[in-house]
Design goal:
2 copies of one chain form a homodimer.
Chain A (H helix, E strand, L loop, with lengths): L7 H22 L10 E2 L9 E2 L1 H17 L4 E4 L3 E3 L5 E9 L1 H5 L6 E8 L2 E9 L4 E6 L2 E6 L2 E4 L12 E4 L7 H13 L2 E4 L4 H8 L4 E7 L1 H4 L2 H7 L3 E3 L12 E6 L5 H12 L1
Parallel strand pairs in A: 3-5, 11-12, 11-13
Antiparallel strand pairs in A: 1-2, 3-4, 5-6, 6-7, 7-8, 8-9, 9-10, 13-15, 14-15
Helix pairs in contact in A: 1-2, 4-8, 5-7
Chain lengths: 274, 274
């Protein structure tokens, strides 16, 4: 795995720093949650509502400032402030608030996604939910849930068939017509579907309570933090063809907790969507 | 209002007892959340998956036991254990876990709904989320959010037009074709839609961060706890025709935070759904 190129000491130090970053973003975001968060619409005139708040901008700025102080040579790819040295040896891939729509609706399922690329490959990531005081953090060597009560290892559960699977997507209305057919085919074959979770669903797969997440139209920052967290929990981030994702180029994404689900879910998805 | 028939002292005592019930249900449910909750399927052979867990049953049993000890003459209408003296002067209307599907998927948006009818009318209710340590509680005289940090009053926000509204439903796939058209009409006219919240969305309307909830196929226990909580926060529980709901007979439900939304949303809903 990519993580093998990093020494265990260096990875442990970066893991500790990542928890610091999560504390810092929580301090920026929480006072604005369910409060006066300065909502504005980034959409061009006539386009769909695209909300951003001071919490999104403040949290990404806080991460960039802390990384810049500690590791001035690192690069960034972030939702709010774009690219800065995206080809550096270490690049932080940032979505300060994934689920801004949930955030502005008061729903505590938004997350802060922080991924770290080393030599072009995702090696460390976290999915943080400060209102719940949860950080799902990991790398290929192992992932864990950190809360004020302590730490527990993350392990995706066994789920070898779609018929047993609990699946999730954020909002089927975001799919194209062909994608909607693909989603509906998987939903029909599954045990249960949940909507509205954004990236919190990725954490639930790592925790072993949810089996499949299907999304489309994603950017690198919507996904990359999950790649090491899922890898360390035994799951996998792939595209809709079932190919494992490294540095995420964007588009359609499929997460499975049990890798045995990869082929059958990809087969359902590829039929109508091609 | 109905509450006027109850003395303030009696209402305050019942309010205190309701918080006790919420503590008791949290103690039953939390150890089973994301754990071994004894999931079974209540559906008849061939019907859709209808999950129930030991947490649902244990929480409703705990409420019935505590009420029975304190108020042996009170009646019950509950999702898990049915009706018991449903025509008593006081009747508890119970959904021990609203959002069992969210519960079994590890998502902390399930809630415990406890409503109290006095002489046939809902007078007191709570929407509790023990994992978040939140109880939204109220009656026509006022509602509040109780957390370990203290209490704050609940007040729905002003939102006079659909174009400004953030709306919610749990899962559009639960709608009939005509209901889906009605939902889609409101969604198209709104600012933003959120999915997957179950009754937690009602609490978000009372908190003033969400404006409209639209659901169908509900039972009394899915709704009644919200009637006093919304009334005390300035909002309203109605049916799709825009008629205010008292004791809920079941079916389609519309919640608004700003009563000025009632007529325009009901008008959108009634066009295609009739």
């Amino acid at each position: 795995m990519a993580a093998s190129s990093l020494s265990a000491d260096r990875l442990a130090a970066l893991d500790g720093f990542l928890r610091e970053l999560n504390r810092a973003t929580g301090e920026v975001i929480l006072p604005l949650f369910r409060g006066d968060h300065g909502l504005t619409d980034k959409a061009k005139a006539g386009a769909a509502f695209d909300p951003v708040t001071e919490a999104d901008r403040g949290a990404e700025a806080a991460i960039r400032r802390l990384v810049g102080e500690r590791f001035p040579e690192h690069g960034f790819i972030g939702e709010e402030y774009g690219e800065d040295r995206p080809d550096a040896e270490f690049v932080w891939v940032l979505d300060p608030i994934d689920g801004t729509r949930a955030f502005i609706s008061g729903l505590p399922l938004w997350t802060t996604l922080i991924g770290l690329r080393f030599q072009g490959r995702p090696v460390l990531g976290s999915i943080g939910q400060p209102f719940l005081d949860e950080v799902f953090i990991g790398h290929a060597g192992g992932s864990r849930l950190v809360t004020p009560l302590g730490e527990r290892p993350l392990k995706a559960r066994a789920c070898p068939t779609i018929a047993q699977a609990v699946i999730a997507t954020t909002d089927p209305a975001l799919f194209s017509a062909a994608e909607m057919e693909a989603w509906s085919a998987v939903r029909k074959a599954s045990r249960l579907a949940r909507l509205g979770c954004d990236a919190y669903a990725y954490a639930m797969v790592a925790l072993g309570v949810l089996d499949v997440v299907i999304e489309s139209n994603l950017k690198a920052w919507d996904v990359e933090a999950a790649v090491p967290v899922l890898a360390g929990a035994g799951g996998l981030v792939a595209d809709w063809r079932g190919e494992a994702v490294g540095a995420f180029a964007g588009g359609r994404m499929l997460i499975v907790g049990d890798r045995a689900l990869l082929e059958p879910v990809a087969a359902e998805l590829s039929r109508p969507a091609q």
